[in-house]
Amino acid sequence: MKLKYITSMSALKLIRKLAGFKGITITAFAFGSNVLHLKIKPHKCGCQCPHCGRRGTIVQSSTHKSRRWEDLRLGAWALHLHYQPREICCPTHGRSQEVIHWANPNAQVTFRHEYQMLRLSQQMTQKQVAELLDVPVSTLSGRLHRAIERYRQGHEICDLHYVGIDEVSYCKGHKYLTVVYDLERSVVVWIGTGKGRKTIDEFFNEVLSENQRNEVVGACCDMSETYIGAIEDHCPQAVLVLDRFHIMKSLNEAVDEVRKEQWRDAGTEERKVLKGLRWLLFKHGSNRSKRDTRLLNEIQRSNRRIYRAWVLKDEFNQFWEYTYEKCAETFLKSWTRTALLSRLEPIRKFVETLRRNQQGAVPLSKSHLVL
Ligand SMILES: [Zn+2]
To answer: Phi and psi of 178, rounded to 5°?
Structure first.
């Protein structure tokens, strides 16, 4: 790499480069004890209204005091930013303090300092973070609480129309959490321990009021009976959506179950052929290499059951290409018929779940959609 050496640069420009400021201009600096004080001002985007973002006129008689923000450390130096926010007058919203682009309105630290603090707090104890950032533990604790409180405000349940329910595992898949999303706002609105019916019932019964439950228009979840049952019981008016990811995941699991069965019954010689097959079976047709095709041809000759399961999975991908409801319906009917004839138990179970959730054999009925 060729380095371009700089021979002249003013001190202010140098500090700006080192600190990595964007949208901020440094007007003066001073050294304190282990602290580098920087007087700053917004670069080009000052005097904006906090409500509409439009530029307002500066109110000259402003009484706003100069404020100080703690920023990321610069080597051995702590960085303190100083600025006197201006009072502005917006034609629509009247008088208010201009937007501060580097920090939250009432925070004493900059956004990037806050981000670092939150990231570190995920990994270590508050005492260790306080030591690293060189602040008292009580100060850090207060800042953390305020930051978390602020971020939580955006996750309150209001106008919940489209719900997404999913489970996440932790402790290497031994424990589960149920996560409920507001799909319109893309935020998590609730988290409960466990993945059973009791957990999800707790959300619908204790967190949502009857009115809120009636306002739910659509709900999306995986193919587990627990979540589907809970949605049908608590929000019968909601359109249930089974998404592509969860349907394909379920089908892949069924194919893998067939593979496992065959592996258990196979002798030493047969196992040689079946080795390393797991990920190949999951692969989408468009990512298949020549080697993969050769392996699949081998499987076709040596293990008909695995091959049949894989062909069914591969054919099912066609379902997502349809744009007309009727065509998709015809395809699904013919596919399920073939799948049931295959006499593969895990695939049959998948088909049954799919059918049950389609209210009989109607794949795209009004109340149940497959996306
Ligand atoms: Zn405004």
So the answer is: -105, 125
Query: Which residue is associated with the tokens 């089908």?
Result: 251
The angle formed by the CA atoms of residues 248, 252 and 258, to the nearest 5 degrees, is 150
Ligand 1 geometric centre to CA of 162 (Å): 31
* pLDDT tens figures, 154-189: 777 888 899 999 999 888 888 999 999 998 888 888
Torsion of CA 288, 257, 199, 217, to 10 degrees: 50
Mean pLDDT of 307-314: 90
Q: What band does 369 get if pLDDT is binned at 50, 70 and 90?
A: very low
Give tens-digit pLDDT for 231-287: 989 988 888 888 788 888 889 999 999 888 888 888 777 777 777 777 878 888 777
Q: Is the pLDDT of residue 67 over 50?
A: yes
What's the gap in Å between 86 CA and the centre of ligand 1?
Answer: 14
C-beta separation of 96 from 57 below 8 A: no
Domain limits, the chain: 18-102, 106-153, 162-242, 245-370
Tell me, yes or no, if the pTM score tops 0.85: no
Domain at 162-242, CATH class: alpha beta
CA of 251 to the centre of ligand 1 (A): 53
- Report CA(363)–ligand 1 centroid distance (Å): 50
Q: How far is CA 172 from CA 12, 169, 180, in A?
A: 50, 7, 21
Ligand 1 center from residue 146 Cα (angstroms): 26
CA of 93 to the centre of ligand 1 (A): 4
- Å from CA of 100 to ligand 1 middle: 14
Alpha carbons 186 and 222: distance in angstroms, whole number = 17
CA of residue 106 to ligand 1 center, whole Å: 19
C-alpha 90 to ligand 1 mean position (Å): 5
